[in-house]
Design a protein that fits this description.
Residues 11-192 form the Glyoxalase-like domain. It holds the Pfam family Glyoxalase_3. By secondary structure, the protein is mainly beta. Helix content is 15%, strand content 38%. The protein contains 3 helices and 12 strands; from the N terminus they run βαββββαββββαβββ. The protein has helices spanning 21-32, 106-115, 184-194; strands at 11-17, 37-42, 47-56, 66-72, 95-101, 122-130, 135-142, 154-157, 171-181, 201-203, 208-215, 218-221. An 8-stranded mixed beta barrel has the order 1-4-3-2-6-7-8-5. β11 (208-215) and β12 form a beta hairpin.
Length: 222
């Protein structure tokens, strides 16, 4: 039975990183039956992405969330140090790397995290051009390497830009989502401060994200 309580209400999107973008998109389609659509490039960052809509179990119809497949952009040179955003250079196959949340009061959550000593990095302004030529601009918290190996979400604020999930994206169902942590209590504290205290956290031997996605062609588990 699907556990409807495992999907955080503030989930913005999940990020799957891949070592080779076209091959990663093809593998995702093979496993789920859903073909991702081109998102756009991140100029000067060495990456590009493809997008799939997410339909989280138990969420109201029309809620905004999506899945991003992120990998090296073959039309850009890689950064000189070989480091890609969101540690995408570390991917081996389809890797559920990290996730983003959109708290209702972005700056207040950032201030609260500072006060509570949560290491989220810094706030950055970001942008990319969509495949249709629309410029998207947003701000997010960013740290490299990722805090807690990607299990701690970054915060994102889309401002006046159109949310990517508002596009007509092919979609898969998000049936389950949880975090494994060797220090579950500390992970829960950080999540609560950041605005994702409703996330399921389980004690484990390593920091790791778990999710179960279902498309017409099959179920993909991380």
């Amino acid at each position: 039975m699907d556990d409807l309580s495992t999907i955080p209400a503030n989930l913005d999107h999940l990020i799957i990183t891949v070592p080779e973008l076209e091959a990663g998109v093809a593998e995702f389609e093979r496993l789920t039956g859903v073909k991702a659509v081109a998102g756009g490039r991140h100029p000067g960052r060495g990456t590009a992405n493809y997008l799939i809509g997410l339909t989280p179990a138990g969420w109201p119809e029309g809620a905004h969330t999506y899945l991003e497949i992120l990998g090296p952009d073959p039309q850009q040179e890689a950064p000189a140090d070989g480091t890609l955003p969101l540690d995408a250079h570390l991917a081996q196959g389809l890797t559920l790397q990290t996730w983003a949340i959109h708290p209702h009061a972005f700056l207040a959550k950032v201030a609260g995290a500072n006060t509570e000593g949560i290491d989220f990095g810094e706030v950055r302004d970001m942008s990319r051009e969509t495949a249709e030529g629309e410029l998207l601009e947003w701000r997010l918290t960013s740290r490299s390497p990722l805090p807690s190996k990607g299990t701690q979400p970054f915060l994102i604020d889309w401002g006046e830009s159109t949310h990517p999930a508002e596009a007509a994206l092919p979609s898969v169902e998000l049936l389950e989502f949880s975090i494994e942590s060797p220090d579950a209590e500390e992970s829960r504290r950080a999540l609560d401060v950041l605005g994702a205290g409703d996330t399921q956290v389980v004690e484990g031997t390593e920091h790791r994200l778990h999710a179960r996605l279902r498309g017409p062609g099959g179920v993909l588990k991380f």
